[in-house]
Amino acid sequence: MTVLKTSLRNFFAHKGRMILSGIAVLLSVAFVCGTLVFTDTMDHTFDKLFNDSAADVTISAKEIDDAQDNGKVATVPVTLLEKAKRIEGVKAAYLDVSSDKITVVDSDNDNIGPTSGAPTVGVNWQESDRNPLELSSGRLAKGPGEAVLDKDTADKKDVEIGDTLKVIAIPGTFEVKVTGIASFTATNPGATLVIFDTPTAQAKLLGSTKETVEVDLDAAAGVSNDELKKNVLAALGSDYDVKTQSETADDAADDLGSFFDFMKYAMLAFALVSVIVGIFLIVNTFSMLVTQRTREIGLLRAVGASRKQVNRSVLVEAVLLGVVGSLLGIASGIGLAVGLMKLMGKAGMHLSTSDLTIKVSTPLIGLVLGVVVTVLAAYLPARRAGKVSPMAALRDAGTPADGKSGKVRAALGLLITGVGGAGLVLATTEDDGGVAGQYLGLGILLTLIGFIVIGPLLASVVVRVLGFLGLRVFGAVGRMAERNALRNPRRTGATAAALMIGLALVSGLAVVSSSMVASATDELDKSVGADFIVGSDMGQPLAPQVTQAVVAAKGKLDHITNFRSVNAKVTTPGGKDEKGTLEATDPTYMQDVRTKAVAGDLATVYNTVNTVSVPEGFAEDNELKVGDKLTVAFVEGKTATLRIAAITADDTMLSHGARFISTATMERNLPEDKRPLAEIMLASAKDGQEDQAYTVLKQNLEEYPQVKVRDQADYKKVLEDQVGQLLNLVYGLLGLAIVVAILGVVNTLALSVVERTREIGLIRAIGMSRLQTRRMIRLESVVISLFGAILGLGLGLAWGIAAQKLMELGGLKVLEIPWATIAYVFVGSAVVGLLAAVIPAYRAGRMNVLNAIATD
């Protein structure tokens, strides 16, 4: 009981210090719990939507693995409807028509579909009770010239009843008048829905009123879904895919599951970074509190307290901090999840707070995480407190550092750093990508740990250099700031380590992303001879209308090249099977993309039938050479024997790992209705007509806003923007770790000021002004922050360079170091130091001189 009282007294006696450490716990737990609540809510919301909207039993076409992307939707004959109605146990049957192979534009030719990655879907109006839509205004569509639009899209894109929309579908382009607005009765998954009457949906989306996508069945009373499925299979045989409501819902959830999992684990990874950074803050807090209470702890030992009791007292304080910080973090995490839901709403995915899902495991995870992390961080300071001898009560404060342990730590840190550095070097020299990746991961982990362990040794060197270069100009104040930063190298190292981690990740990612963009642009300059690239930003294949519009500009063009991906199973002479794609191109592809052949002749591949090129790595792995033959089973087509006519180099990015065939080979082995649509089209202008060709292409494709025409400069800009958007997201998430690191600097300075109260009073008494005192604290903060920045940037550069060397195996051959970003980060670290010192410097300057001198 005495231990608990002592812990409570000490906990509340240092509220300010505990609040700063508590914020680190709060932020870490909040991010973890917020991620779990947000992703669990999305899972629950979509599970509910899929279960509520799925029919009791669904009949659809047999799924074909890796079917060719010919833009068409798999269908079943309409005659199934009448057959289904006669099956025992069927209460009602409906035709279900849908297609996400469409683009919808308004009268200004602007795409009204979502930009968040969700699809634009054309559907027929369902009379079933499971219809997730209800008409909120206007009337239902009747006939081929009418449609209903979902309310979320109508509100966002300012579409009203009576407006005209143009629908670009694979079978053709057509216009509709909006006759009604429909609202979702459940969560809007973020898609744009255009609803037609059933015959129109069949004719315009599928190209035939004799086909439908699915036949949905409602079970009669007393008939289970499983029983109805058995009846359907008995009546129709195994020619169709028959699924129950739960199976349909599970399939739909699985399609989204990989995206949700990626989002969850990516966010949790950044939360882990903030947890690691927070550990340093907590360690520093308890280390300094133990140091400040050395006399008190010595007195407790003198009056009979055991080491275990002193140790337990510190750990109880850590538990209290962990519990309070975790509880606040759990509440903040729920708020964060609600904020993310509102943010998703602005992107078009409306998640209702009524569906907020907080599993029992989520607060438990948050509480356990916060308490365990805090106790682990406080363990070493607690052990140090337990070792304080009763004689320490006779000293002013603090305990002498253990020189032997410092040397052991330095030696261990140098060893770990050296092994980690060797791992990074091996990652740059290894030719096997998998092995190189393992070396890189090991090198990153060990160099990070090594720098953390060796931090005090580095502090004694780097801080002196920084002091010589930047602090000496401030005279005695600068020298005192340098001395204060060097007074406890272990503390300075731990404080800087928190900032080091965040900046190492930022600078490492900056090097990787800059190298990716530089490599891509270099590859474009060296390898791409085409003047123009036509493609969809949404990754959709090009509709026939689009390819016709490109062909219509051939008067200004020298040639046009189609690029298609054909799904197939490839069998080597050794009997090894591999599913993948073959890239089907026209003969002019060799003019548009300069691909290096290490053996054979690529022109033969592009111009002849039943020949193929394979990449160098594939050839080596399977001991293939020019003249060998592959057995290729084209999905939905023939099985053919293709002769290897060329082997392509792997030291490229654009066609790394690609296997090429000619368009003629594709046409011979795939029926016309199964041939994939072009993914991109490459075009080159006639000599001297580049500007005119560019203008004509843009004009011809103006009515297809889902498709972009880009010259090489445009394409480079797109690459930069895409990488930039990804980096901005990463920087924003890593900002959390940097915020925690700033708190660490504030905490260290605040505790340092308290620790040096008497010293500050004495130097004030002999003539130092308030302004000089504040400047001394600010300079100390700046030098600690710059020390952390140097370590972080140095680590990040090493990581980024090693990662780029690894990426060379995939064709990313240009190393680009973003020196401007590095400089901004370095200067920003100095600003961080100034901001972190505001409150501690203010308190030091306001300190009463006589009271400070009288402090024990």
TrEMBL record:
Pfam families according to UniProt: FtsX, MacB_PCD
Source domain of life: Bacteria
Residues of the ABC3 transporter permease C-terminal domain: 269-390, 733-848
Topology in membrane: Multi-pass membrane protein
Domain MacB-like periplasmic core: 22-232, 492-690
Gene Ontology, cellular component aspect: plasma membrane
Transmembrane stretches, start-end: 265-291, 314-340, 360-382, 410-427, 439-471, 492-512, 729-754, 782-802, 822-842
Gene Ontology molecular-function annotations: transmembrane transporter activity
Subcellular location: Cell membrane
Keywords for the protein's UniProt record, in alphabetical order: Cell membrane, Membrane, Transmembrane, Transmembrane helix
Family label: Belongs to the ABC-4 integral membrane protein family.
Protein name: ABC transporter permease
UniProt source species: Wenjunlia vitaminophila (Streptomyces vitaminophilus)
